[in-house]
Design brief:
Layout (H helix, E strand, L loop, with lengths): L5 E10 L3 H12 L4 E6 L6 E3 L2 E3 L12 H11 L18 H4 L3 E7 L2 E6 L2 H11 L4 H23 L14 H5 L10 H5 L4 H14 L2 E2 L5 H8 L13 H14 L3 E5 L2 E7 L3 E6 L4 E10 L3 H4 L8 H9 L1 E14 L10 E5 L11 E6 L12 E11 L8 H15 L3 H4 E5 L1 H6 L8 E4 L14 E3 L2 E3 L14
Parallel strand pairs: 1-2, 1-11, 2-8, 5-13, 7-17, 11-19
Antiparallel strand pairs: 3-4, 5-6, 9-10, 10-11, 12-15, 12-16, 12-17, 13-14, 14-15, 18-19
Helix pairs in contact: 1-10, 5-9
Amino acid sequence: MSKKPKVEEHEIVILGSGLGGLIAGAYLSRMNRNVLLLKERRYQSSFVRDSYRFVPFSNFSERRPKHSLLQKISRTLNLPLLADDREDGRKVYRSFEKTKQESTFQVILPKARVDLFYQRSIFRKEWKREFSKETDRIADFYKEMERIGPLLRRLKSKGDPWSAFPIHPSPWIKRWLPFKSLPSERMDEKLSPFSKEFREFIKLQLISWGNLYSDRFPFYLAAYLLLQDEGGEWISEIDLEGIKKKILEIFVLSGGRVEEIEGVEKIERRWWRRFVVSLKEEARVLETRFLVLNSPLHHLSYLLGKKERKLSRWRQKIQPRYALLPLFLGIDEKVVPVGMRDLLVSILDLEKPYGGGNLLLVHLGPKGDEECAPKGKRAVTVESLIPVEQLDPRSLDEHLKGVMRHLHHLFPFLEHYIEFTDWSWAKEQSLCWSYPHFLYETNHDFKWGKGLVPARLSRNLYFVGKENFPYLGQLTV
């Protein structure tokens, strides 16, 4: 006869140990709530080899986090994340007066190479040089977006200070009373008069700032993502992995518990508004009043069964189209071309799909930073896209060939200056339920509301993290 599983009671269970889950756990534990955070045993969020250190990413907002959002985290947790100096004496980030003269990242197209600068006047020179036949039309395009900016900030300021940009389908009554002040055009309509190169230039920026791909982006949402506020400070030197460790320390010191598990077999909802979580390979179940999910929606929705049909509806509205797979390279500094930025997005062929190495998001570790690479070397993290249905470790080697062809195009003579290429992390980690690196797609229209996926599905079921709010990037909390 099989034994009944041991039942453990908890007030709050957080499934997943990403940044959003850690912040939620630290905040709740400081309020003297009983919190258990479940971490996947085999998932590792970073990779170290031969004195090189790599951290995979899903979009460039993870490499360029915004000062205001880090301030919110600091205030909420009473954590000095933004101290001017680190213990080793190095600055955490440069002042905005210096960074606004620098490029946020570089867009490389078959016939154009454009640096995106914080300062609009410098950026204007870039696109005028590369899209010289369309300068007047492009100028009007940006002027129209700039007129929308103040309105978006005003509408956003009326909401919850923690709310992010809202694009949830609005309540039924607002369908009859839409916001007349926001333009109704979609980006595909706005971009139709432009060349294919410029259209792709805009699309690659939207993908680079967030994890969401759509042909139905409203023009005002694109304006919000593309016209990063010139007065808002973006930080180019911040260690998010270090921040996560500090928040984890706060969580544990405040009484929070962390347990490593293989995975979850099933989540049942009892009639007295409690969840029962059955764990893989364990003879126990967890009973909890509140459940917080910090793992990709498509990994978890099937666990909740038929009673959570609402969650299934949201899963149908936003689907993972591509997985972002990291390739790690150690290279000699000599191979980096003059003028190449530390962040770049590159596409080889505008007529082909993004997969197979045709589209790459590249991060070069900071020059001279010996925490990331030995002296005279650079750590390079290359994110390529592979269709989710092809995400199979056995098929990755063929995919790698396409990625390397693209890299040899970007880095001439790469074969003479390469230390190693490492694909092992992607093969081992990409099938974990904690794996967060996806490019999502939706074919649904966007309306002014509260979020693409609701932060609270029911009275005691919540979502946190970029895994469930992809258009906002890493620091959604």
